[in-house]
Amino acid sequence: MKLAELGEFGLIERIRHQAPQGPDVFRGIGDDAAELILPAGHHLLTSTDLLIENVHFRRDWTDCESLGHKAVAVNLSDIAAMGATPRYLYLGLAFPSDTELDEITAFLKGALDEAKRYNVTLVGGDTCHSPGPWLISVTIEGSALANQSIGRSGARPGDLIMVSGTVGDSALALALLCDGKRPEPSLLARHHRPTPHVELGRQLSERRLASAMIDISDGLAGDLVHILQASKVDGLIEEVKLPLSEAFRRITEGQPALRELALYGGEDYELLFTVPPDCATKVADLCTEGQLKVTTIGVVGKGSGELSLRDGSAVARRIPVRGYDHFCRSRE
Ligand code: ADP
Ligand code: MG
Q1: What is the CA radius of gyration of the chain?
Q2: What does DSSP assign to residue 133?
Q3: CA pair distance 180, 77, nearest whole angstrom
Q4: Are 85 and 125 spatial neighbours (Cβ–Cβ below 8 Å)?
Q5: How many CB atoms lie within 10 A of CB 16?
Q6: Are 200 and 280 contacting, i.e. CB atoms less than 8 angstroms apart?
């Protein structure tokens, strides 16, 4: 069955049936605006991501369920990076009329399963016809106690620079796909099914262990520079300390252009954060409890936003800031 047979309101009705509304939803799907009840003393945090077919994803490289999962996961990651609790989801969707309903159903399953895993409720959105590509706009609202969220501007000289998980896997999977190869399942999963580290982010903020935090979407180096510039400090990272998966090490061995993806590849969705030295052991304890690996990769120094890298030699060199820029494809 094609979307044209169900129509806009038929699709919205289906979505409404699949999205149970909790007691904190005063008005949800079906009204002109959602009306929500926030816990007393909490601030509202909001983040939006726009995903466009053939810009952000290719439907011949991913299945629709994974796409739904990833669309929500990457947005959840932004709320995680603030140390906040995600609560509400909005989905703006545009599909061509001849889209198979099965594809939309699979997309919604991925999106709603991922939302449910983090206790997030779908409370609204918009649904339109697209003349060509799929367009997906995901908004997540979360909340945090006043003065408890973690921004990018709090890093101070002497703080340690830490990162969760491993870096470069998602970008390596993408590079292999672009090269016409089939990446092994562990790498593909990092690309198509990223995990937002909501609990780690929340623990870091509740226990006040991180001075600044960001999630890695554009690459470790570029995203770290965002923290350094916002905080008006410099950073030094040790290349040997970068946490690399076994698959990443093996495949990039002796291939510097691929090895660089650990620093410049995007879409890791790991948390990158700075920690005052007296909180470092508490972060280590937190990770033992949560089973999520966190690695210290460097240190913050006095300065004005520059990043240096020590790659085995005693001398650190300044490295250029690179990240993905939608309007400037040179990546410089
Ligand atoms: P309006 O014309 O007032 O914007 P719509 O007909 O677009 O209303 O939407 C009706 C209701 O359905 C609203 O509550 C809206 O938030 C919800 N809705 C529309 N599209 C979606 C979607 N893709 N996901 C979730 N809720 C949706
Ligand atoms: Mg509308």
Answers
A1: 21
A2: S
A3: 29
A4: no
A5: 14
A6: no
The b-or-e profile of 68-96 (16+ CB within 10 A means b, else e) is bbbbbbbbbbbbbbbbbbbbbbbbbbbbe
**Dist CA 276 CA 255 (whole Å):** 35
Are the C-beta atoms of 322 and 219 separated by less than 8 Å? yes
Question: Per the structure block, which two tokens stand in for 111?
Answer: 């999106």
Tell the burial category of 194 from Cβ atoms under 10 Å away from its Cβ (0-12, 13-18, 19+). Answer: buried
Asked if 198 and 79 touch (Cβ cutoff 8 Å), the reply is: yes
Residues in contact with ligand 1 by the CB-under-6-Å rule are 12, 15, 29-32, 91, 93, 122, 124-127
Instruction: Report pLDDT for 313.
Output: 76
Token code pair at residue 105: 């159903």
Query: How far separated are the first and last CA of the chain, in Å rounded?
Result: 45
Residue 171 tokens read as 């970008």
Please answer whether residues 85 and 143 qualify as being in contact, where contact means their C-beta atoms are separated by less than 8 angstroms. Answer: yes
Span from the CA of 27 to the centroid of ligand 1 (angstroms): 12
pLDDT range class, residue 332, cuts 50, 70, 90: very low
pTM of the predicted structure, to 2 decimals: 0.94
d(CA 178, CA 180): 5
- Which pLDDT tens digit goes with each residue over 268-281? 999 999 999 999 99
Q: Tell the residue nearest (CA) to atom 1 of ligand 1.
A: 32
CA of 125 to the centre of ligand 2 (A): 7
Q: Which is nearest to 92 in space by CA: 33, 132, 149, 49?
A: 49
Confidence band of 328 (pLDDT split at 50, 70, 90): low
Beta bridge partners of 299: 160, 236
Pairing of strands 121-129, 85-95: parallel
